[in-house]
UniProtKB/TrEMBL annotation:
SUPFAM superfamilies in UniProt: Cytochrome P450
Record's protein name: Cytochrome P450
Keywords: Heme, Iron, Membrane, Metal-binding, Oxidoreductase, Transmembrane, Transmembrane helix
Organism whose genome encodes this protein: Oryza nivara
Family the entry assigns: Belongs to the cytochrome P450 family.
Length: 519
């Protein structure tokens, strides 16, 4: 090693050591301050302002709820069922949870202006989502909402999305299931993983016009999908850290998960920037019906374009995968529902083969039973289990609960789907017929069933999501029997994240049906 290189090596080493020393010092000082504060408060027999000894807060802080319940959402559902106004205040979290339709209507529609997403939520997702629709309030949100709602309602985008889903089904999902079934009963598939890959391919093509090919038979996972997963998982994990200053400090020092998050976001950014650059270079020759091409007509700022499209990918990927996974998990225990689906599909298809490439996606609209079965499964397993807003000013909820400025208010779709007071004594039973009247699907109020939210910020991808999920259900149920093999998946455990994910996946055995005919 030459003299210059040695000097450089020593300098780099010294710099690294000094950085490590600084990191250690910051942690030491913050730990010492916390201990000193706790001791001081104990000496003065004072409680910190966030402390609360009520039974709910105590059970939360000591995690004693976990002795009786598999998931936090199950415990919340239990508490909300028993609460007189169907509203519970978890003081230590500064969070008011509700399962009361009148309160949901109040926050999402009547007093929408008082319940924005708020700064605490935006801060958590800002690095990943930037100024995308999902993460902003006010004029920035309204501009994107108008633009996106118009695009998603346009016949061109709808037809494009239907083609994307049809081709992903025909060329990838069905061949993959066929291949899994041909190995006999030994070969298990993680259905959740398969649907995550399927939904990622679809939403990438719809949003960017880009095919990541996650569902190819060899099952490679693209670097982009991997980075996207890491970025959304680590962003969601920020919300689970009790003191936000912890992740903020880690981000400042670029260490641990925050460093991983930064690297993942860099990769997503690089790919998005490259796609946008290529598209700009090719000009009108490259414009298609994907969302990016459509938005490019109205927006010149490339970073803003990236934020908008990435928000769409986040909104439309895991939600669809989660909805489909839960659907087939329930169907595995309900062969009578699968049989009723087959009957309806053949009736609506009028004798034509519904699995054929030429199958008309418009026919999906006439499949009321399939629609009802999908809504019923999302009642029990909503892909977005809960959603929070932050009160801009003080307020009183319809059930009389006082809400101080800055309080987090959360509607709990998972708990609401399991309330006897809302769905009757058989609320725990998977029964698609509850959504039908005279054979037709009858929708519920979105404030009683806020699976797609409701009010001013209701999901704008709802129709697209339903088309995609119904198309998968029809194609898979006609050609295969899907059996969930793990008995414990009947009492699933959820992994923490922005959307409901089954911890450990959902292993299934797939059998090809002898012929695609009604049962
Ligand atoms: C089963 C599938 C889906 C479910 C259950 C679902 C549910 C939701 C929920 C609960 C929200 C409100 C989130 C919040 O404000 O924090 C939302 C918003 C949104 N969803 Fe969906 N979604 C689904 C699929 C999709 C798809 C496929 C797309 C896009 C193609 C999409 C695009 C959006 C967008 C852009 C928003 C933000 C709307 C706004 O803030 O004005 N969603 N969705």
């Amino acid at each position: 090693m030459g003299a210059d290189a040695t000097t450089l090596h020593i300098a780099v080493h010294a710099l690294a050591s000094s950085l490590q020393a600084q990191v250690a010092a910051v942690f030491f000082v913050s730990a010492a301050c916390t201990v000193a504060l706790a001791l001081l408060l104990a000496l003065l027999r004072l409680r910190p302002p966030w402390w609360c000894a009520c039974p709910v807060c105590e059970a939360y802080v000591t995690a004693s709820w976990a002795r009786e319940f598999d998931n936090l959402c199950d415990w919340y559902a239990h508490l909300l069922r028993r609460a007189p106004g169907r509203t519970v205040h978890v003081h230590v979290l500064g969070n008011v949870l509700t399962a009361n339709p009148a309160t949901v209507d109040h926050m999402l529609r009547c007093r929408f202006d008082n319940y924005p997403k708020g700064a605490p939520f935006s801060a958590i997702l800002a690095d990943f989502l930037g100024r995308g629709i999902f993460n902003v309030d006010g004029d920035g949100w309204l501009f994107q909402r108008k633009l996106a709602a118009a695009e998603l309602a346009s016949p061109a985008i709808r037809a494009f999305a239907a083609n994307v889903v049809a081709s992903e089904l025909r060329c990838r999902l069905i061949p993959l299931l066929r291949s899994a079934s041909s190995y006999g009963s030994e070969r298990l598939l993680d259905l959740q993983d398969v649907f995550r890959r399927f939904a990622f391919d679809c939403i990438c093509k719809i949003s960017f016009g880009l095919d990541p090919g996650c569902l190819e038979l060899s099952l490679p996972i693209s670097a982009f999908a991997d980075a996207f997963d890491t970025a959304s998982m680590l962003s969601a994990r920020r919300a689970t850290v009790p003191m936000h200053v912890v992740w903020k400090l880690k981000r400042l020092l670029n260490i641990g998960e925050e460093r991983e998050l930064r690297d993942a976001i860099r990769l997503v950014d690089a790919l998005a920037a490259e796609v946008i650059r290529q598209r700009r270079k090719l000009g009108s020759a490259a414009s298609g019906d994907d969302l990016l091409s459509r938005f490019m007509g109205s927006i010149n700022d490339d970073k803003y374009l990236r934020d908008i499209v990435v928000s769409f990918m986040l909104a439309g990927r895991d939600t669809v995968a989660s909805g489909l996974t839960a659907f087939f998990l329930l169907l595995s225990d309900h062969p009578e529902v699968a049989a009723a689906i087959r009957d309806e599909v053949f009736r609506v298809a009028g004798g034509r083969d519904p699995t054929a490439a030429s199958f008309d996606f418009d026919k999906l609209k006439d499949m009321h039973y399939v629609h009802a079965a999908l809504y019923e499964s999302m009642r029990l397993f909503p892909p977005v289990q809960f959603d929070s807003k932050f009160a801009a000013g003080e307020d009183t909820l319809p059930d009389g609960t006082f809400v101080a400025k800055g309080t987090r208010v959360t509607y709990h779709a998972y708990a609401m789907g399991r309330m006897e007071s809302l769905w009757g004594p058989d609320c725990a039973v998977f029964r698609p017929e509850r959504w039908l009247s005279g054979g037709r699907f009858v929708p519920e109020s979105p404030y009683r069933y806020p699976v797609f939210q409701g009010g001013v910020r209701v999901c704008i991808g709802k129709d697209l999501a339903i088309m995609e999920m119904k198309a998968v259900i029809v194609a898979v149920v006609l050609s295969f029997d899907v059996e969930a093999v793990d008995r414990s998946s009947r009492r699933p455990k959820f992994a923490p994240g922005l959307t409901a994910t089954f911890a450990g996946g959902v292993p299934v055995r797939v059998r090809r049906r002898a012929h695609c005919a009604p049962s």
